[in-house]
Each structure stands twice: as C-alpha cells, then as structure tokens.
Prior knowledge:
This protein is mostly beta strands.
Amino acid sequence: ETGGRPVTRRATQAIWPAEALPGIRPLFGNKAVYDYRSDSYHDEPTVPEQSLAEFDIVYTNSQGKKLAAEKLDVRLIRERHDY
C-alpha cells in the first residue's frame, strides 16, 4: 500500500522437511483447560498424575504410506510460551 496503511497477507503451505518422518498420537484423554489469554476453556490432551503418558508412533513418507522402522529415536518436546 503506497498510502502507508498496513497490509496483512497470509500464506499456508505444507512443508515436509524429510523423505520420511515419525508421527505421534497421545493415547490419553482430553481435559478442559482454562486459557487465561482467551478467557475460555479448551480441550487439551492431559495425563492424570502418577500415571504413564503413552503414545502411538508411526513412521510415514510424504504420501502417508506407513514405513517400517527399527531403532527409531523420537524426542517429544513441548514448548510453553506463556512466561
């Protein structure tokens, strides 16, 4: 915009950074969690205290075809940005 008004644009594109990647799915239920930023509740996968967090792991290519994998090391990192 030559008049100085802000211009907002958005583009969405799927990125597949490798030939094959692991996928992870939690095997525990959701719980309503309060979000103070939006002043509302939303469902979030939650593990009860004193219990194990279990997951399904899948290894697929970019077309979604499941691949065999041995000695697959996966690291799950949850980053929280509410500090």
